[in-house]
Structure formats: C-alpha cells, structure tokens
Amino acid sequence: MWATTVADHRAFYDGGTLFGLGTGIGLAGLSANSQLDRDIYEDVLPEWRTDEVREFRDSVLPMGEGTVVLPVLATAALAGPWLGSDAVGTWGERSLRAIAVGAPPMLALQRLIGAGRPDDPTNTRKSEWEPFDYSNGVSGHAFIGSVPFLTVARMQDDVAIDCACYAGSLLVAGARLQGSRHYFSQVVLGWWIGFLATGAVDDAGLGNPDNALSILPYATDDEVGILVSHRF
Question: Which positions ≥6 away from 43 have C-beta within 8 Å?
C-alpha cells in the first residue's frame, strides 16, 4: 500500500502532470478574472433553471458527495475479489487512489484561489480570485463526481464506453453549475484535477510514471534538435 501511494504521488507530481495542472489553473484564472464566468452565470444558466433540470440535478448531486461516494468505492474495492469480479475491485481501488492523490492539491487550491460562491450574498467580488478570502475556488463535488467515471474510461479502450464515461464525469460539475453553487471556472478546475489524478494512477499502474514526460535529443543527416513527448 505504501509503495502504491508513493508511486501515485510521484506520477501526479511529475513534470507532465504539473504542467497540465498549471495550464488548467491558468485557463481557469482567465475565465474567473474576466467576464466569461459571469456571462455564463448571468446569460446561459437561467435557461437551465427549469423544474425538469432541477429534478435531474438533485438526482445526480449525491454522486459528488464524499460521504456517499467513498463508502461505495471502498465497498467495491473490498467486495470485488470476494464477488469474483476483478474489474469492480480494481475500479474501486483505483478510484480511491485517485481521490487520495487529487484531494490535497484540490483542497489547497480552494483556499489559495480564494474565490466565493455565486449564491453567497457576502461575496462581493463575484468570480474573481482573492487568495484566502473564501474557500470555494475549486469544486470538490465536481472533482469527486468525475473520478469514478474517468477511472472506468482509463481502464478500457472501448470508444463508446469512453464517451459515455466522459459525459458521466461532467454530470456533477453541471449540477453544481446549474444550482449556482459554483462558477464555470470552479467546476472545470475540479473536473480537471480529477482527470489528472486518474491519469496519475494510470501512469503509476504502468510501473514507470516518470516516462509520462520525455525530453530526448535527436539528430538526422539534416538537423539536430530536441524531442519533447507527453503521454496522455
């Protein structure tokens, strides 16, 4: 267990994943500190606020609750081998590992970014970042809700299943957005950390996470250069 945990964190904090995390933070910052977040909240979301959408939102929100998701994943990890299903057990274990590796940076960024909720009457800065002012800069629900689906997507290569899983991974993020609990940049960043965390677990499982980012020299008869590759 300790070796697996170390491998997961090494994979998450390698150069490629950190570059991806930094890129996601930068793009989220552009959205949060410009008019984009507020335009989506004020102009797009009102069209989603119907009774039908609210009912659907309420039905998917539990998939982003840690008190609901973590026991389900733990049960799957423990009961999978007993039920004779290696896939179920592996799914539960890998999902828990992804949450464990992604939760610390997610919680740290929540406070560091310091953005508030759109439905908070005390939030006078709207979506703008103000370090340590609030603790809602990243959607924890979007993060937790994305991990089980993204784990399935990374466990197999069927395109149809991949598409369904990626769509499912966005459900909780959309629910939090529709319910005015987070701005667009906040749910996107939560989903993105889930994506990176499941990728780190996948890389650790390959036994060579450091190869996610490779920088190699190359030479031909006509030119000399550097080859940079990143495995997604």
Answer: none
